[in-house]
Amino acid sequence: MTVPVPDLAIELYEKCLMSQDPYTVLGEHLGKELGLFAISVWSAHPNVRDAASRIVFFQQESRENLIQKDQELADHVFSTRGSFSGFHRGLYYRAEALWGTHSHNAVILWSVLPFSNTDMAFLENLCSRLTVLFDVIVLKDSPMPNRVARELESTQFIQRQLMPPLDVLGGKNFLSYRTLPAHELGGDYLDILTYPNDSVGLTVADAMGKGVPGAFLMLMARTIFRLLAKDMNPPHQILTALNKQFTREIADVQAFVTQFYCVYSPVHKALIYANAGHNPPVIYRRSAGKSGVLPGNGIALGGRSDAQYQSHSVKLDSGDILVIFTDGLSDARNEHEQAFGVRGIARTVMKYKEYSADGICDSLVNAVMKHCQMQTDDISLMVLKAD
User: Fold this and answer.
1) Three-state DSSP class for 242?
2) DSSP string, 117-155
3) What is the reported pTM?
4) Which of 160, 166, 358, 368 is the most exposed place for a label (fewest CB within 10 A)?
């Protein structure tokens, strides 16, 4: 590591607080000035226990085997609030806790050379000043993190009572989700079903309406879906049966639900899906470095009792990413009435493609909250990243 002669912290304060993207500036400036192989900073969510996202990432050259270790080190920092050093696959690392008043972070520094005593003394001083800098950045941009915190608080009831627990897959990290209702209760729902052959059933749905009416409609559709999907039948059969039953239940009510349902086999990386009027999920193909949407659609549930649906299949390769979402994410608009859109989702996935499914979820939430000044619709999303 290179210890710079001038006061690096003052330079960082000036550059970061004048920038629209202070975290990117911080990573690049520190990485280059200190001659580091890589640097990352992980930030803990204020209202979700054991949830963190990587907000700073700089790497001199691609080395994918660092990603998992980097997150493991960050998790250890958050659990101990301590600092420690080590060696991993040809690189030396130093992990430090940046425990501020308004933000809790973990910084991981990677170097091709071991950290000397001089390096350690410099880093101790630098990290204390970085802690203050992160607090200042959070306070400078306070509407966004406070807004996210409020929405996360309001969704806790639904997550506890209706949503699947985050550890439903027994520690497997290829899947994660977030849901942020526009009101105290929301009309979106999602579910994760596990089957004996290690396959998982995944669904994201959007009931017409928001608040209490949307929540009651959501509860009705979810209850019927759960009964029908307990056995692993093809997705088009599930949606066809669900539509018939749901249409009977709401015969005197002008209401509908859009729903995407798929069955994914992690072993074979095979996805079978059907769509009932829902937003086509965004799929990122790592081999091509491009994003698109899954083809195939159908009529919304409750629209017509005799509606028929079709199952489609797709193969996922390692590193491919699937984002299933409700229109609250894609339709979120900024002050110029520009929608976040499929393009915003694809752009965010491309930027954070090296993250875990959980990290990509956090990145999408942060990106859409930066984009829109006011959330007007429920936002739900599920991210699947093939191992």
Assistant:
1) helix
2) HHHHHHHHHHHHHHHHHHHHHHHHTTHHHHHHHHHHHHT
3) 0.62
4) 160
247 by DSSP, 3-state: which?
helix
pLDDT in tens, 42-98: 998 765 556 778 888 899 887 767 888 898 899 899 999 999 999 998 999 999 999
Domain with CATH 3.60.40.10 in the chain: 146-385
Taking domain 8-140, whether its CATH number is 1.20.58.60 is answered by: no
Three-state DSSP at 36 gives coil
- Mean pLDDT calculated for residue range 313-317: 96
Determine how many CB atoms are found less than 10 A away from the CB of residue 88. Answer: 14
User: To which CATH superfamily is domain 146-385 assigned?
Assistant: PPM-type phosphatase domain (3.60.40.10)
Sheet holding 188-194: strands in order across? 188-194, 200-207, 257-265, 270-276, 312-315
Rounded Cα gap, residues 138 and 349, in angstroms: 23
pLDDT digits (tens, 9 = 90+) for 126-160: 999 899 888 888 876 655 445 544 444 443 444 34
Q: Is the separation of the CB atoms in 385 and 360 below 8 Å?
A: yes
Highest mean pLDDT pick, 157-166, 252-261, 287-296: 287-296
55's tokens: 């907000």
Q: The dihedral of CA 71, 72, 78, 83: what is its sign?
A: negative
Domain with CATH 3.30.450.40 in the chain: 8-140
The amino acid present at 329, given as its one-letter code, is L
Strand order through the sheet with 175-180: 175-180, 379-385, 321-325, 282-285, 290-293
Burial of 273 (0-12, 13-18, 19+ CB in 10 A): buried
Residues with Cβ within 8 Å of residue 21, at least 6 apart in sequence: none
pLDDT in tens, 101-131: 888 999 999 999 999 999 999 999 899 989 9
Question: What Rg value do the Cα atoms of the chain yield, rounded?
Answer: 22
